[in-house]
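Re-running Monocarboxylate transporter 13-like to confirm reproducibility after the cluster update. Everything else is unchanged from the original entry.
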Amino acid sequence: MGERATLVANPRPQTVTEPLYGWVVVASSHTVFILWTGFVKTIGVLLPWLTSYYHTDALALGWITAAFCATNNIAAVFGSILSVLIGSRKVAILGGVIAASGLLLASVSTSLLQFALSLILLTGSGFGMTMCICKVHLGIYFNERLALASGIVTMGVPIGLMVFPAFAELLRFTYGIQGTLIILGALSSNLIVCGALLRHYPGFRIHKLGSDRGYEPINSSQTTESPNVFAALKAHIADRLDVKLLARLDMRMLIVAYMLFSFVNDSWMTFMVSNAMSKGFEGYVATTFSISAGCSAVIFSVIQGILISSKFAGIRVVSAMATAVGSAALFLDPLLNSYLAMIVAVVMYGITLAVLNPTIVCMAIETQGRERAASAFGWMGLFSGIFRLLFGFSTGLLRDITGHYDATFILLGVMLFLIVPVLFVDILVPKCRNIVWRS
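Result of re-run:
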């Protein structure tokens, strides 16, 4: 039997400078986040035309969107396991091949089912595997400047918001829905190149399991019982998945925060342009709101990275303040009908997007450790994906019931605001226990 390999971290001295190649990893990961956002936004821009193209409604397309965002999250678990078995670079490249293949198949689909399966099973999961590896490599290459590096990487989300809505509208007008999906699939093939650039940090070595054990004597008096076999298999799987992480309060805090933010952000990116068009704005005018949100997020991504890296402000306080600002913008959406008011609202949400994306990544790496970051992102993605599958239909259902997106955006505002207390749960709960114990 071949020996299996796992990554074992060699502790890095604090005096060692962060390697220059880390910025190549940042640029590669930044591109991956741009492409993912571009994919989600393109589907969002095409949403009004997809309903007539496939003779369906917003509820079905809303669930499909939720489902491929869910598989994007769930695939992080498989990405983390495969990275141990075959190497992280190969996993990232494989994810790129799968993602691009899904979009190409979706472009030739003749039914809603074919379209859904292509995006859900292939494109969503392919992106998820690659994005998980990108986050893990940030923790491998960066220490003191982790917040800044994470901010630059996740800045790909607002840049995608700025570039792809108008680009997708132009592609749809010029080439139609099928042509748009083909071009998007070709662009997504760049994930393969990005994955090839994600090489291991030299301080991480491959440790062969079993290479240091030697031969053990066989005790012929022992018999192998099936319960013991199943117990050993169960323990092995639990070890591979690092199930013990779920017992940590800070890990559960991260899961809930990521679950809520992922749901809100993916829904916002999907329905924002359609929401603006339902208020009477033309398609190209509606895309300017995405550009405004993207500009806001780019600026505040840099600001938050500087503030946190310089220790000027705590990561949780900055995250809570930014979350409250974005929640207020979503709450006020039903009252916004003028162009200026919509611009202000999307700029406010851009602040949330700029801050929460990188800070959740940083908190996961810092609280769970760099060696367990892959497992942490895997569990966060798994629970987030399950949540999307169970409740992803709600946004489209509210649109079909009410005839507008007001109720949808109020729901998103409530969910986003719940993140504020969640961010401090792992700090407050132990303090409350101490107070109760003393009393």
